[in-house]
User: Fold this.
Amino acid sequence: MATTSTTDEKREWLRGVLQRHGPALRRYAARLTGDVTTADAVVQATLRKLMAVVPPPPEDKLAEWLFRVGRNSAVESNRGRRGSSSDAGAAAGDDAESGPAPKGSGGKAGGDPLLAALNKLNQVQQEVLRLKFQHGMNYREIGGILNLTVPNVGILIHGAMKQLRSNPQLRERIARL
Assistant:
């Protein structure tokens, strides 16, 4: 009887984790993989790994853990797909409202100067900005996800923001961030 209760509690906990972090993790994985189906597989793999971790990460480190493991799974997935698809390694862009759109595909990013400017940043700068502003991560969490030091995260964000502010069309919009 105790095992069933523990299993039910774990399933309920996992449902809560999925409800709280699933949508953001899926967007992040879709951004990294460029494919919603692969992103779903990444999220599932991440949740399976979470269920196997004993003890689970503490609540204040859970989002960082999920994003780091999800990122690693997405990178691994991209490596596996590179050999079978010519565009599997292509970077994808997304915003809070839309799903992933391949870079240069002429999707929503084509008309928004901010998204166009973001796409001109290097991949790591794009990722730290998205984790900071789209997913609300702090510098420590971003560093944990990307295996960077907190000062390095700060330097990357500062450099990216400086580059974005250099665009006269974006100065006022960036100032509000």
